[in-house]
Design brief:
heterodimer, A: 369 residues, Cytochrome Bc1 Complex, Chain D, domain 2, 2 domains, two-stranded antiparallel sheet, 16 helices, 33% helix, B: alpha+beta, 5-stranded antiparallel sheet, 14% helix
Chain lengths: 369, 420
């Protein structure tokens, strides 16, 4: 394999070699699937922006390290300055072993082992380079190879398939493999107070009420008042200094994002992840309504207006200052003798409350009179 | 070990059986002088027992059937999202047996095929990664003994003595040896970006538990663990993978760990806003109260483990721990905190692990008010409940590390009380 690549890169323009080997024709559709491996870091197509890696529109003919607004590794910038231009040949060599071809590139990808995959991928990328879609070949410039970094033994090692097929591209131990964009999207559903992670979507109070009645009221009550010991969702405002405060979403929760995030990941209880993103917007809107934070049944919550909703208790939290409490602040040597006056008197019995579970079958806690 | 009711009833049963045998003339020809447990040949001394294949995975003796986790049904709405308690009063040493480690689930026990389990690292990292369990086993492993205490342990006691047994007042704790991989290795493998300040672990169960952990802690001593006490994690403890956050509240030790996201801000998840925040008397609540403070409890005698031997030599034993590090000293009082003696620490003294203490004395049969008071190597001393309540008000139920009082009556019965 490595020998083949070396031959490919040093001696033969790609197009010539292709004619001698029975490869399948490059297929842009298959290439779109191959591109799934790249999507975590690269965007291509209409409106594509730089992500972890640069956007790839009009890649063919672009000088390496020159996409505007993207911060390249010094190595890639230098390669461009030395004349590296992206075309079939250079992309083939680069994608087979990125870090072998441009030593010091920050592209962490291991490389594509199968030549067919690279062919298909390039066919797909050409559909996003104006004028390059037609499979015309031989635009490779033979003199390019003198300017390119010389193939090295390192490159040979990079290109060799790892014994267990694990990519050796990241970290210290080279364990695990890069996550795909779809995999990350499937699991990364968390939402933060600044709106980070909110999906597209919308839902109204009225829509939320219907969903709530069907899916939530059995435990939380029709008005969020709760059945049994299930959590109370509404009311309790201005009770936090009471002897028995009522901690609800309206009275206690500092951020609306927590409501969206929690419903989306864990509710309804026993059937998590069954609600659509719009459903969750609607339910979140309805919970706001139950707490009088919005009062209009037509109120629609969406990604656009989400972060403008402020929760009543948003300023109700402080950082951990336990160590300033008198019993900790002093760090005094504790008293050993005559520490309290008089004999100890019982002020409260647990047994009187009688809330301790009986040990079944006579085991465990003996009864105390 | 203490004389549990189980053992007492067993002894009675033994005597009865011996008497029956004697009456039928099947035992020794003449009634010997002394303890029939000695003078009569016991079944187990005569007949061979089950062979090695009878119990491929061994269980405790049937006479220990009472040593189990217990639930307090009225605490929660549903056992699927609930808690049970470690029977501390029945245990000794510092290691909790795997099957007795208390459980706290938010959507029941996830049953995960380890071959289908994946751990993802994403967010502010150079390379988002996916690991299989086999991948994780190839990182350098470490073994550490740590306690895990729920922040709500003793929370039901905040407003006063309520539950009569240290299993219930203090049983949301366990201590095992974990085998796992340093979280730092995994984060380094993905390459944390310079603005990555927080890590969010996420569970694979139906509650998809999330918490925000400061990067400094994540890099310091957190583990991604796959074994406890040498064997695979139990399903109820997060099989096949859980996070270990030494010295910090149990809720952060996400079970069934499937994802670690790196971010520049905390996520403000439900469990770190609506729960596990500490409402003070002024209406403000502390948040991110991660550390478990210095604490101890006498496990025996205690309400479920009364003194049954009468006056004379008596062993007081208990546990002490601190999220700060090692326990330096434990004092015991027999008179409700008027006078203290320093107890004897025995067994390994490991940072952020349970410590076992003993105090042996001759009981004169008079009423006792037993207390223990721990001091950690940072110099923090376990406070009284009164001191804590004075500082925090009536509703700060999490992180109750106040000194516990057990009242021992003249007959040896023990009760959970509050005293003057």
């Amino acid at each position: 394999m490595s020998k083949f690549l070396k031959t490919l890169a040093v001696l033969a323009p790609l197009s010539l070699l292709c004619n001698n080997v029975a490869w399948a024709d490059p297929d842009a559709e298959d290439g779109a699937k191959v591109f799934n491996k790249c999507k975590a870091c690269h965007a291509v197509g209409e409106g594509a922006k730089h992500k972890v890696g640069p956007e790839l529109n009009d890649l063919f003919g672009r000088t390496a390290g020159t996409a505007e607004g993207y911060k390249y590794s010094p190595a890639m910038t230098k390669a461009g300055e030395e004349g590296l231009v992206w075309n079939d040949e250079t992309l083939h060599a680069y994608l087979a072993a990125p870090r072998g071809y441009v030593k010091g590139t920050k592209m962490a990808f291991a490389g594509l082992k199968k030549k067919e995959e690279i062919d298909d991928l390039l066919a797909y990328l050409k559909t996003h380079t104006s004028g390059a879609a037609a499979p015309e070949e031989k635009e490779a410039e033979p003199e390019r190879k003198s300017e390119a970094p010389a193939p090295t033994e390192e490159r040979k090692a990079e290109a060799a398939p790892a014994p267990d097929a694990a990519p050796k591209t990241h970290g210290v131990f080279h364990l695990g493999r890069p996550a795909t964009a779809d995999e990350i999207a499937a699991w990364d559903i968390d939402v933060r107070p600044d709106g980070h992670g909110l999906p597209e979507g919308r839902g109204t109070v009225a829509e939320g009420e219907a969903l709530f009645t069907d899916q939530c009221a059995a435990c939380h009550g029709d008005f969020g008042e709760a059945i049994g010991r299930w959590p109370v969702l509404a009311g309790g405002q201005d009770t936090l200094t009471n002897d028995r405060p009522v901690k609800t979403i309206g009275s206690y929760w500092p951020y609306l994002s927590t409501v969206y995030d929690y419903i989306r990941r864990a509710m309804p209880f026993g059937n998590a992840r069954s609600l659509s993103d719009d459903d969750v917007y609607a339910l979140t809107a309805y919970v706001l309504y139950l707490n009088d934070i919005v009062t209009d049944e037509d109120f629609e919550l969406s990604r656009d207006n989400f972060t403008s909703v402020e929760m009543p208790n948003k300023d109700g939290f402080i950082d951990d200052d336990r160590l300033s409490e008198p019993h900790y602040a002093g760090k005094a040597e504790p008293c050993m003798n005559d520490c309290r006056p008089g004999k100890a008197e019982i002020t409260m019995h647990a047994a009187v409350l009688d809330v301790t579970p009986d040990a079944e079958d006579g085991e465990g806690s003996p009864s105390i009179e | 070990m203490t004389n549990t009711p189980t053992r007492r009833s067993f002894m009675k049963g033994g005597l009865g059986a011996g008497a029956a045998l004697a009456a039928a003339g099947l035992a020794a020809p003449a009634r010997a002088e002394g303890d029939p447990a000695i003078t009569e040949i016991q079944d187990w001394n005569r007949y061979s027992g089950p062979g090695v294949d009878a119990s491929p995975y061994g269980k405790p003796s049937k006479f220990e059937a009472g040593v189990v986790r217990r639930n307090v049904a009225w605490l929660t709405a549903d056992p699927v999202s609930s808690v049970n308690f470690t029977p501390l009063h029945e245990l000794d040493g510092i290691i909790t047996p795997n099957g007795l480690c208390f459980e706290r689930h938010h959507a029941g026990v996830a049953e995960i095929d380890p071959h289908k389990h994946r751990l993802m690292i994403n967010g502010l990292v150079e390379t988002p990664l996916v690991f299989t369990m086999a991948d994780l086993m190839r990182f350098p492993r470490e073994n550490h003994v740590y306690f895990l205490e729920c922040a709500a342990n003793s929370g039901m006691e905040w407003r006063g003595a309520q539950l009569n047994g240290c299993q219930y007042t203090h049983g949301m704790i366990h201590c095992v040896m974990y085998t796992g991989v340093k979280l730092k290795h995994l984060l380094d493998e993905a390459g944390v970006k310079t603005n990555g300040k927080w890590v969010m672990p996420e569970g694979a169960d139906a509650s998809a538990m999330t918490r925000s952990i400061p990067m400094e802690k994540a890099m310091e001593d957190c583990l991604v663990a796959f074994r406890m006490n040498g064997e695979a994690l139990r399903p109820e403890q997060g099989y096949p993978l859980r996070l270990v956050v030494p010295g910090w509240e149990g809720n952060m030790w996400v079970k069934w760990l499937r994802r670690l996201e790196v971010g520049d801000e905390p996520w403000q998840a439900r469990e770190e806003t609506s729960k596990y925040t500490d409402l003070l008397a002024n209406g403000k609540a502390r948040r991110f109260t991660f550390l478990m403070d210095v604490k101890s409890v006498i496990t025996s005698p205690s309400p479920q483990a009364p003194i049954t031997h009468g006056r004379g030599r008596t062993v007081v034993t208990g546990l002490a721990w601190s999220g700060t590090g090692r326990i330096k000293r434990v004092d015991v009082s027999l008179d409700g905190g008027r006078n203290w003696v320093t107890a004897r620490l025995d067994g390994p003294s490991l940072p952020k692990a349970l410590h076992r203490f003993y105090h042996e004395f001759d009981w004169d049969g008079s009423e006792l008010f037993l207390q223990s008071r721990a001091m950690d190597e940072a110099g923090f001393v376990q406070p009284t409940k009164q001191e804590l309540r004075a500082a925090r008000g009536p509703n700060s139920i999490y992180h109750n590390n106040g000194i516990q009082t057990w009242h021992v009556a003249t007959d040896g019965a023990v009760e959970n009380v509050e005293i003057s």
